[in-house]
Design a protein that fits this description.
alpha+beta, DNA ligase i, domain 1, D-amino Acid Aminotransferase, Chain A, domain 1, OB fold (Dihydrolipoamide Acetyltransferase, E2P), 3 domains, globular
Length: 526
């Protein structure tokens, strides 16, 4: 754990990518192979399930420290993170426990079948043998909240530099449902575990936001243009009569879309299709909020399957009869995809529409009207482009329509975590509903550090109530909130939900009586 704690300290103390890569490589050069596997697992989101109730952790920390509950709550509100709060209030360790990261992970996983008393004894002993940073990591691993500010790209670049493997090969190797106790570090970085079963997906090819004039792209007929949809990007895999559906977030979501699974199961051959999973009814793409109702449910009723039917808009063909097609140009892959779907005619899987246009000006007009069909904009793909792992600038562009915006007032604020734990960075906004204010969105990004400090000063001076770490503030600060989409939602007091809300700007020129009205906002819903 010592070396892992040193790595975390090094990563948290810099925002320079090269320094983070060097820190990861330094760890890989020193750590045993079992710990290297756990590093990859933890950094790619393969955390073990929480086997200790965080409320118990809080109670045990209070038992050790004998702090009054109100003081703990004040500390928690100030710090903003439970694991960090506990690490800070515990007395210095009286012993030194020196175990590897993999040993700790195995101990934590084995807590699953332990009694509460056995869990308590394990936690007490561990706290008494770890320093502050080690305790913090231990608490986060124990509570299932371990996250680290290292992107997948940074991790892959570090592994590439360490192993001298191709980055695309490593990305493919790390995808899928491998488990840390079932694969070796050598198998991971040498890609020997690629396709150990039929479910293995490919790294998704991603696009950059369009950042140049259309004329700079060259001739219009060199580009394949499709609508950009707001659904779930997925890979539909059929191999050896087995069917798997993977989301872009590397979640296996097969059981959430039984109608797609059944259709693919009835098709012939082996293939991997890349496409967008959407809620489509009567030929119309429904709002993402409707699709969201289908997600993460243990059971799907006949009523829900009927009211929110699913389709896949197929973009690409990555594999056919065990042949990897990714190095072929998209024009060729598209032709093969069309032939596959034409021969099979699968219900619920439709090839994405190719937009025909004469010139770039015409394409701009098509983009401007794309919201009318619940599209986010356009995708521009060079016809000669391969299917890259991740992003490659110049081949694929996403050209989204301008976001929708509303003016709302800040009514709740909560402190952030990490380097922003001393400032209020998490905000809840409200709009008018007759003579009341009703919450409509939370947002965490969009302000400069200077503006965050200004807002924090306002919250400290104008807090009305507090609920744990949350402060109710006087409704005076008005902000322009940008978002990608809007739909009706029973889960929000306002009755609507915003898609990807963020702060566009602080409207210091507006007063609270100038914020938007809920009924007018609802008119934005298609």
């Amino acid at each position: 754990m010592k070396h892992f704690a040193e790595l975390i300290n090094a990563l948290e103390s810099t925002n320079k990518t090269n320094a983070k890569i060097d820190a990861i490589i330094d760890y890989l050069e020193r750590a045993p192979d079992e710990d290297k596997v756990w590093l990859i697992a933890l950094f790619t989101g393969k955390r073990p399930k929480r086997n200790v109730n965080t409320n118990y952790m809080k109670e045990w920390a209070l038992e050790i420290t004998q702090l009054p509950f109100w003081l703990f709550q004040e500390s928690y509100s100030s710090v903003g993170d439970l694991g960090e709060t506990i690490s800070l209030i515990l007395p210095p360790p009286e012993e030194k426990i020196d175990r590897s990261l993999s040993d700790w992970m195995n101990e934590i996983i084995n807590l699953k079948n332990k009694t509460d008393q056995e869990k308590k004894e394990f936690v007490f002993t561990s706290w008494n043998g770890l320093d502050y940073t080690e305790r913090l990591i231990f608490n986060k691993l124990l509570g299932g909240s371990f996250r680290i500010g290292v992107s997948d790209k940074t991790l892959i670049n570090a592994l590439t530099k360490f192993s001298h493997q191709e980055s695309s090969t490593l990305m493919h190797s790390l995808m899928g449902k491998w488990l840390p106790d079932e694969v070796s570090f050598h198998e991971l970085i040498s890609a020997e575990n690629i396709n150990p079963d039929n479910s293995k997906p490919y790294p998704f090819c991603l696009a950059y936001a369009l950042e140049k004039d259309l004329e700079e792209l060259g001739k219009p007929d060199e580009w394949l243009i499709e609508y950009k949809w707001d659904g779930i990007r997925g890979q539909i895999i059929r191999r050896n009569d087995e069917v798997f559906i993977w989301s872009r977030g590397e979640e296996l979501v097969t059981d959430q879309f039984p109608e797609i699974k059944e259709v693919v199961q009835n098709m012939k051959g082996d293939f991997v299709i890349d496409g967008e999973i959407l809620a489509v009814k009567d030929g119309k793409v429904l709002n993402f909020n409707e699709l969201q109702k289908r997600l993460n449910r243990k059971t799907l009723t006949k009523k829900m399957l009927s009211e929110i039917p699913i389709q896949v808009f197929a973009y690409d063909l990555l594999e056919l009869e065990n042949n990897d097609l990714r190095e072929k140009p998209i024009s060729a892959r598209r032709a093969m995809l069309e032939e596959l779907l034409l021969n099979e005619s699968p219900e619920n899987i439709k090839i994405s529409e190719v937009i025909e246009f004469e010139n770039w000006n015409e394409l701009n007009n098509i983009r401007e009207n794309s919201r009318d069909i619940n599209s986010e904009g356009l995708m521009l793909k060079q016809k000669s482009s391969q299917y890259h792992s991740g992003r490659k600038k110049g081949d694929w562009w996403k050209w989204k329509i301008s976001p929708l915006t509303i003016d709302a007032v800040l009514i709740y604020a909560q402190k952030g975590s990490g380097r922003r734990s001393a400032y209020y960075t998490d905000y809840t906004f409200a709009v008018k509903n007759e003579d009341k204010l009703v919450t409509i969105a939370k947002a965490y990004s969009g302000l400069t550090d200077k503006e965050i400090m200004e807002v924090s000063k306002f919250v400290n001076k104008n807090a009305i109530e507090k609920f744990g770490p949350v402060r109710t503030v006087k409704p005076e600060l008005v902000f322009e909130i940008a978002f990608e989409g809007i739909g009706f939602s029973n889960r929000h007091k306002s009755g609507v939900a915003l898609r990807f809300p963020r702060i566009l700007r602080w409207r210091k020129d507006k007063k609270v009586d100038e914020i938007d009205d809920l009924e007018e906002i609802k008119k934005l819903i298609q």
